[in-house]
Specification:
single chain; 429 residues; alpha/beta; Rossmann fold; 2 domains; eight-stranded mixed sheet; six-stranded parallel sheet; 14 strands; 41% helix; binds 1,4-dihydronicotinamide adenine dinucleotide; binds uridine-5'-diphosphate-glucuronic acid; NAD binding; NAD; UDP-glucose 6-dehydrogenase
Length: 429
Amino acid sequence: MVNICVIGAGYVGLTTAAVLAELGHEVCCIDKDQNKITELNNGKIPIYEPGLSEFIAKNTNRLSFNTNLEEGVKKASIIFICVGTPSLADGKTNLSYVDAVINEIAPCIHSYKTIITKSTVPIGTNEQIYEKLLAKKISPELFNIVSNPEFLREGSAIYDMLHPDKIVVGLRQDDTQSLPIIQEMYSRIQAPYIVTSLNGAEMIKYASNAFLATKISFINEIARICEAFHIDVNDVSKGIGLDPRIGPHFLQAGLGYGGSCFPKDVKSLEQIALSKQIHPLILQAVQTVNDTQIDVYIHKLKTLFPDLHTKKIAVLGIAFKPNTDDTRDSPAERLISRLSQLTCDVCAYDPKAKLSHDQHHVRQVNSLDEAIKGADCVVIATDWDEFKQLDWTEIKKQMNGTIIVDGRNCLNRKEIEQCGLRYVGVGRG
Ligand SMILES: NC(=O)C1=CN([C@@H]2O[C@H](COP(=O)(O)OP(=O)(O)OC[C@H]3O[C@@H](n4cnc5c(N)ncnc54)[C@H](O)[C@@H]3O)[C@@H](O)[C@H]2O)C=CC1
Ligand SMILES: O=C(O)[C@H]1O[C@H](OP(=O)(O)OP(=O)(O)OC[C@H]2O[C@@H](n3ccc(=O)[nH]c3=O)[C@H](O)[C@@H]2O)[C@H](O)[C@@H](O)[C@@H]1O
């Protein structure tokens, strides 16, 4: 058992804290947001992440929440940095939250600490953190810096952290102390270790997200070509996915990728490359395809409805993916904004997520029935299971029109057509 301080009570921080407590450690999770900490201390979890609430409740004897960073850091021998690293306007990474944490923890280092960065940070950041702490006159005998990037997905965060496909550990060249500490801390997790330099670990994280985003933009481009030749892209995904060199995952065409990480991390890696005068052609193409994917659907809608601005559109899904209430950079919200600009009457429904801001002509309703009632067109924007299992005969009765736009290529086309509805996907033949 070790004493651990996790800084940042967001998706990654809360999951890290809960999993480390489950592994038997004494964990204090710190956030500067007093409301969040009050909620957590009252047993309320500020985000929707399946199973997280129960998992935290199960481990409360070893898990505490606080705003007092000094107290948390002083007691701990291991410190996790899990604060946000959002994009700046130019696509580079905003490191102000990480910098603030370093400034706050520096005066509290009086005994040996292993400082682990879980936040996704640009190449070179962990080396810079080490130098910054030295510049603040912290003795190198008192700390080490480790990069331990996180690969969890929202919606399955706990499972992913307990069953990772690898544990990536980036170390400074002369650091012989940290690896055994990390291995001991994670001793109950079975996974291969990738031990590399600090820069290497940072790059593995960016390359991983960029590759997954590339797969999505690739299949979206293939879907556009499929459409021109009346080919079903879902068959193509299955066909190519069976080749183990390609793999079946992340080949679902649709509205494109979103969320708090893919868009910002691909942009950041592009900027990292440009900072070294490397022109990242693939990364730029990946973003261009993604940035124009909503246009594909708007074009379809305009062709289906020449008087689109007079139509009532039910948009099912607001979250950037199912099983989360996260709307950060959500393709569903991007689509809603475009429909709002076109002055359509938009009725949005999501089982968990809320629209992040008010928009003209857009209403969020509390039930699926309310959204669908009188709709000229239903758009599936997030592939929640409950949308995949809809009774289309009943839906048809409630709609005014007959068009179902499958923005995630996740519906059974035949089933929908048999109910007398018209199915519109992307690249579905
Ligand atoms: N969300 C995800 O699924 C994944 C995120 N990541 C990376 O992990 C990092 C964190 O992401 P999220 O958990 O989504 O962020 P988040 O935005 O949900 O949470 C960050 C938390 O840090 C807190 N915070 C900021 N500055 C602080 C300070 N000085 N002291 C204490 N608390 C502070 C904020 O109040 C907030 O609660 C990012 O770098 C992200 O790229 C990595 C893998 C998965
Ligand atoms: O760094 C991160 O934050 C995380 O980013 C992603 O996880 P997440 O953003 O939770 O969600 P994904 O399941 O990867 O989906 C991302 C987006 O791609 C879209 N997507 C996904 C798969 C697919 O085939 N097609 C597709 O359009 C989803 O709808 C969603 O908008 C990665 O999968 C995680 O490994 C990583 O840790």
